[in-house]
Structures are given as structure tokens and as C-alpha cells.
Amino acid sequence: MWCGVSAALWPVRCRSFLLQCRNICSGNVGRKSVVDGVLPSFRSVCGEDGVSLSEAIREQHGKDESVHKCCPPDVVVFPRSVDEVSALAKICHMHCLPIIPFGTGTGLEGGVGAMKGGVCFSLRNMDQVLDLHVEDFDVTVEPGVTRKALNSYLRDTGLWFPVDPGADASLCGMAATSASGTNAVRYGTMRENIMNLEVVLADGTIINTAGKGRRPRYDWPDETSQSRKENAGYNLTNLFVGSEGTLGIITKTTLRLYGIPEAVVSAVCSFPSVQAAVDSTVQILQSGVPIARIEFLDDVMIDACNRFSSLSYPVTPTLFLEFHGSERSLEEQVNTSEEITQCNGGSDFQWAKDEETRSRLWKARHDAWYAALALRPGCKAYATDVCVPLSMLPQIIVETKEDLIANKLTGPIAGHVGDGNFHCLMVLDPNDPDELQRVHLFTERLARRALAMSGTCTGEHGVGLGKRALLVEEMGAQAIQVMQSLKETLDPKNLMNPGKVLQ
Amino acid sequence: MWCGVSAALWPVRCRSFLLQCRNICSGNVGRKSVVDGVLPSFRSVCGEDGVSLSEAIREQHGKDESVHKCCPPDVVVFPRSVDEVSALAKICHMHCLPIIPFGTGTGLEGGVGAMKGGVCFSLRNMDQVLDLHVEDFDVTVEPGVTRKALNSYLRDTGLWFPVDPGADASLCGMAATSASGTNAVRYGTMRENIMNLEVVLADGTIINTAGKGRRPRYDWPDETSQSRKENAGYNLTNLFVGSEGTLGIITKTTLRLYGIPEAVVSAVCSFPSVQAAVDSTVQILQSGVPIARIEFLDDVMIDACNRFSSLSYPVTPTLFLEFHGSERSLEEQVNTSEEITQCNGGSDFQWAKDEETRSRLWKARHDAWYAALALRPGCKAYATDVCVPLSMLPQIIVETKEDLIANKLTGPIAGHVGDGNFHCLMVLDPNDPDELQRVHLFTERLARRALAMSGTCTGEHGVGLGKRALLVEEMGAQAIQVMQSLKETLDPKNLMNPGKVLQ
């Protein structure tokens, strides 16, 4: 009985303390004066140039590529090392100032908005590629290193990093948001490709999530590496991957690399129906073809792409495919896939090997976002992000298209169909409150349709600001309570990117 | 300042409470009488047959396949459903009784020993395969379903589950210990193949780690499925995978399935040196050959296998390889790999397609454990489990063999070389305290050698009982503190499998 009572008591104690701290942190006037007071300490850590109060800089760091309105931080700091990040975090922690990590600002869910003001940690000055090990297929990078920067650094090594969300995002930002994209069907998402993280916690503590990391190898004392597999204690790496800056600041990530494929073939194929395109996808995966990319575009999307890129693809559901492998295995992969698409009524199967034709084929897919925007000049775009079991994809896409038409909304569909993940690129007039409301209600219906099909409200963009309520519906109160308790354990003052992921 | 003080205070409050609770839980006499008191409640939950005090049953549930001594629980319960697991857990929670989940007892690190007595939850009566979705490549299983049982269930579907730790373990147990094995180099470990878990927490709360799960699909109301990808909130799934029963009881797992390969080819190749075998492995991986298995056996291991299975492989470092794919891609995979092995001085490259010859080829690898034991009849075996970056593998294996010889120890080496993970199968006389001590010191030296090479003390077997101190050395005090705080958050009374993973 005694146990029962105490067990019931302690969370209450902790929570009441947290609430008091939260109130202090969110008091606007009080906070601004606190910020003014700590500026000298910030400057002593990362220099005069490392601290900015300029309105332009703060505005620039208060928004990402989503439609969420800009929420500028009180100040932006530019640390140059993990020790500076840690020192700055300690100051923020002591003074209860919110901390918002910032990579490249290419997120799509409002993840960098300073909802409660505070200090934006821009990590662009930490941009070194560290410890490349070709033999071990791994590399460690600082948060300022982007996906494209890493791949050009790797160009002559025969290796590459395949996760490709489209934007040239910071790799640590991609870790924080668990990015994925078009290659995930073959190479996995960030989650499957991160071997270790260096993280600065809310109180400034520096940890490595998988082994101490940076352990000098006694043959090459200046180098470090990482074992490909480990089963040592709780998996901290995956707790921070996808935590969207709410549990800590990722200051280093060790990534798994892959051999650059000997050859690449791209293909495009048109289908009489969504069902036919999805059936082909399932059968291609089932047949064991190690397809690298398999992207779906609906008729509206293809039409937009034709107009935007002066192409002439048939205006029907379409698959864009990419195959990686040896010359010989590619021939087989392409033949098997073409047979499958033909059995499902696919036509105009065009494929290309040379880079120029390949990039022309893929141009439509790569320009989809701009093609959608061009449908209504002067409008903004917002991408939905549901993901469902493959078998449910035709049904949800058909119902969603009916919903779009019924509500007079423009939302061409592009999807990573191999994962069951698709996006409606909602093109909307930000100055039309009625349309904004209709889009809002549509995206909620779409998410609930996905949940009803055992799907998720976010396959890759994350929860950020806009999906916190949907997350509760998806996970259920009990699992949310577990997430909440993990957050309170690692960040008891709720300083790390407050107001994101959890409500 | 106020914040700083309180932040410093609250963990102290919580900890002192936890310590008091721990003391109560570990009092032996007190606990036994508590157990007697709750037996009627246990019986009312899972029936007379569902509760056992028999010494034989308790002994059987107090040990796994490791050399750790048997630690029987006070009582073994056999729940038949997640609701019974939850009801039993609530009783244990109210009375501060330790809970030890038990699958098949095939663990290798003493994970099931009841270090503080308490209640063993044997999950063998929950043995249903649920919700198979061939089109979605997923299946959900209860904890009593083993790896082999699932694959025979799947036989006619064209799908299979590839993770293969050797033993016919329970799939939920494999999730709890993050098992991997010989196929991991191509298909990943449990971590990469678990889509959702149903977990009962220490207080009896039931959660799903990735979406509510068991959500009726409105087309087939009795079925459920799972999206292949999700990015919704913190990754609870991977927090429980590998937690070794210390955070909750896994009562259901949804697994990713794969198409059964059209064809399989096995091969064996001998090498002049460890370096040559490892270089071949790295080059095969680098060349993009999607190798399914690549196993290393050292000369001592091969010699033992030759004797045990009346084979005649050259007594040199040897690789066993397996390729999965289409007839045509296999030919190319095998040719590429054979060329690479030849460039590295590999010889006697034998390969086989038909099942009978394949299983004869692999017999040596599959019987390695027994072959090692046969080296010293009447002795026991203990498998070390370090994992290092591939580039460090030759050096650590060479140094480890020297160490074995210098200390007169029998420890043939078999390894999942594609992952940098290898095992010394230590054959030891359990009645020779001096040898036990030498083995103990050797395994510590081996683990520290791996850590010095940025490796891990456990690639797949987990921490369990014997590696808790090494885990601290590997992770560092700060990361261990984070793990400890996660444990205290999810299990404040330290009831879940106490004394494992963390000290």
C-alpha cells in the first residue's frame, strides 16, 4: 500500500514543479529582460559575431518552408563547436530560456518557430565532415553539413549517402526530423542509416547515443569509427532521431554509407487506374526487385508537370521508377518490372540509362512542387504527408481525390508509393480565409482517413506544430503519456523547442 | 536561480523514494510472504493451471542457455492474453513484486534469472499468429510464436521472416533482446524489422509503440495492419526493442516480411589469412553484391567442425557465403564474389545450388557450437559477442587468438563478418575455478580491446547480467545516467526484470 501511495505522489510533485517552471519560461516581458541580461555571457562563449539580435536574422530563423507563420526567436546564436553549444545550453538552462535548434530551415511542419521566444541555435558554422572511413562504410558530420555537400565530398570515394528528402537539408536536421524521401524504399530512412549521434541535452550535458564515439583508434589516434551493429543498453540513438529538437541538440551524426551503384536506369510508366499502379508496385516489391525509387503521380500532378516542364506524358496515374545495380542485374530488374506493369495495363513504358535522358525523365517528379505552385500563380503550397499500408493506398487515394473535388481544392498527388506514403500538394491562397479553413478541414479528414486504415498522419515530415492533436488520436492517450514522461525526464523545464510534437 | 535550485532538487526527491521502494522489493522473506498473499489473485486472473510454484518449473524458468547460474523466480504465471498480462502486472505493481518476462529461455546473457525473486511471466500460452497481410508484407504475432513456427506458417504465402539468431527463439523475445544473426548483413536485425509493439508497462498499462495498432480496418473489421513508415512522435518501438524486459513486457510484435528468394546459392572459400578473408568481405560489400550471409570461421573452428561433422575443409580462415535472388542475378553475385576472393588469395571456392548440397556446405557453420563443445567433452560453452568496425576486424581477431593461446584457453572463433561481429566460443570446465577466472579476465580484455577500437561489448547478445559494468565503460557515465533516468521514468519501482542491463 505504501508503495502505491508514493508512486501516485511523486509524479504530482514533479509535475507541479514543471508547471511553475513553464509559467516562468513563457512570460514574455520577463523573458526578454532575461535575454538582455545573458547576452554578454552568450558573446563570451561564441564571440560578438556569434550572437545576433538583427530583426532580419531573427525573422529568417523563425520559419521553415511550411505555411506556418514566422515566430522569430529573441536572439540567434552561432556556436562553432559542441563545447560552445553546451556552454550556451547551460546558460539557457540556468535562466529557463527556450532553445530552438536550426539547421537549414527546410522543414515542412513549422519545427523551427520560436513559439515561446527564446534562443535559436543556428548550427551552420559547424560544417566539418569528420572521420570518413571508406572501409567501414561510415562518416561523421557536423550539423552544418548538408546532404549534397556530403555527397560531393564523397564523390571520389566510390561511396554515397542515399537518403534524399528533396531539399538540400542539413544531415543533423534530417536526423532530428527522421527525414526519408524517394530512396527510402531501398535504402531506408534516416532511422536505418544513423549509427551514432552526439547530442547536447537541455542542461548542456554532452552524450553520445551509441558508444562514447570520438574514441581515438590506437592505430590512427586522430580518427574514430563505429561498429555497424550494437546491442548495448537502451537505444538512445532512435529516441533522438525524429524528436524534432524537443529532447536535445544534435551536434554530430555518424552515417552509414553505400557503394555508388555501377549503373542506374530510370523508367516512367502510365496506368489506367491508381489500383493498377499500386498493384504493379506491390508485385515489383514482392518479386524481389531491389527497386531504388518508385514514385506515384496522379493525373492532376502529371498534367501540372506537363504544363510546367513542357512534357507530354499521358494524363493518367503514372509511376516513375529508378533501378540501381550492375549493368546485368539492371537489365533483369527492368525487364521484370516492365512485364509486371504490362500485366497491370501499364503502357508507354519508357526507360533510360544515360544521365541526360534519365534526368529529363525524372524532371517531372523533381519539379512537382513548382509545377503544383504554377497551377495558381501567387499561391502557397502545403504538403500533406499521410502513410498507409500498401493495400489501402488505392482506396485512400481515390477517396481523397473525391474529397478534393467535392471541396473545390487544388491538391495534385505525388507519393513514395513503395512505402505507402503520399503527399497532396495543396495549392492555396493564403489571403483567402475560407479556402484556408477548407484546406485545414480537408487535411484533418485525410489524416483521420489514414488513421482509420491503420496508417499514420505523418510518414516523413514529422509532427511539428500542426499535427500535435492528430498525434494524440494516432497514438492514444497512454502512449502519449509515455512520450510526455520521456520529455519531462530529459527536459524537465520544457526548454527544448517547446510547443512542438507534444501539446 | 529559483529554477536552478528546483531542477537540482526534484531528481533527489524521486530517487530517495525509488531507493526506499527498491529496499522493500528486495527483502527476501517479506517478498515470499507477499507472493503467498497474492497467489489467489493470480489464480483468479489466469486460472489454477496458470500459476505454478513447482520447483522444477521455477528452476526451468530461472535460467537461459548461458553459463549464468539458475536464479528461479518465486512463482511462474502463464497468462493467455494481454489483458491477463496487464491484470497480473497490476497485482505485482501494487505489491512491489519483480516481473521477469520469459519467452523460450534461449537467451545467452542470463536475461531471465530472477535476481530479486518475484514473478516469471511465461508467455508460451500466447502463441497465435495474427493479422497476416501478404500485400502489406507484415504480420503480427503473440510472444509464444517462435521464428521457425512463423516461417512454417508463412510457407505457402511466398513470404518469410529472415532474422535468424540460430536458436528457435520467440519473436517477441527476439524483439526484447534485439536479436540478429547470420542474415543481418542483408536483412538487418530485429530493430530494422519491427513495425509495432504492444507492450504492458510495469503498472499494467497497455500501449502500442507505433500507432494504436489493432485498429479495425473498415473494409475488414477483424483485421489490422501497419504502415511501413511513420514519423509520428518519439520512437517508442526502438526504446523497447533491446530493453531486455527491463522496461515492459512485449505482448505483440508486428514484423516486416520479405519475398522468399527465387533461388539461393551457398559457397565456402578458404583463405591464407584473416586479413584476406576480411578484405574479401569488405570488397564484396563495396561491390554492391547483396550478400545474404557472410560468415567467418577461424582455423581452430574449422578444425573442430571437420572433426565433429567428418568434413575435410582446409584448416585455414574460411568464409561461408549465401546469396539470395533470381537465378540470373545469383550467377552474377557468385561470379563477382569468387573473383574477389581469388584476388585475395582465396582458394577451394565451392558453391552449391541444390538444397541438399547447400545444407551439407553450411552444416559446419550450423554445428559450430556443438563442434566447439566436442573439443572438450563434459565442458560448457560461453560465447563472447564483441563487434568492431570492419577495418579493425583482422587486428582484433589476430590479437584475440594470441591472447587465447597465451592463456591456454579454448575459444574457436565464428563471426558475422559482414557486420564486424564475432564470437569466441569459449569451452570451459565449470568446475575449474582457475579456468573460469582466466575466461572471465579474457572476455573482459576482449571487450576492452573492442571498445578501444570503437567497437561494442555486445553486437547482438545484449547486456543481461554479465556486461553491465562494460556497458558503463562503453557508453560513459552521462549516457548511462540518461538510460537510468528512462528506466526510472517507465519503471519507478524497478520491478521490470531488476538487475539486468543497468547496475
Walk me through what this model shows.
Two copies of one chain form a homodimer. Chain A has 503 residues and is of the alpha+beta class. Chain A has three domains: 1-260, Uridine Diphospho-n-acetylenolpyruvylglucosamine Reductase, domain 3, CATH 3.30.465.10; 263-370, Alpha-Beta Plaits (2-Layer Sandwich); 375-464, Alpha-Beta Plaits, CATH 3.30.70.2740. In chain A, 41% of the residues lie in helices and 18% in strands. In chain A, the strands form four sheets. The first copy, chain A, has a seven-stranded antiparallel beta sheet, sandwiched between helices. In chain A, α2 (28-46) runs antiparallel to α4 (82-94) and α17 (468-475) crosses α18. At the A-B interface, α1, β9, α9, β11 and α10 of A face α1, β9, α9, β11 and α10 of B.
**Which percent bin holds the helix content of chain A?**
40-55%
Enumerate the strands of the largest sheet of chain A in spatial order, edge to edge or round the barrel: 15-12-14-13-17-18-16
Q: Could you tell me how far the N terminus lies from the C terminus of chain A, measured between alpha carbons in angstroms?
A: 33 Å
Envelope shape of chain A: globular
Count of domain modules of chain A: 3
How many DSSP E strands of chain A?
18
Question: How many strands, what sense, and barrel or not for the largest sheet of chain A?
Answer: 7 strands, antiparallel
GO biological process, one term (chains A, B): lactate catabolic process
GO molecular function (chains A, B): D-lactate dehydrogenase (cytochrome) activity; D-lactate dehydrogenase (NAD+) activity; FAD binding
Protein name (chains A, B): Probable D-lactate dehydrogenase, mitochondrial
Domain FAD-binding PCMH-type (chains A, B): 69-260
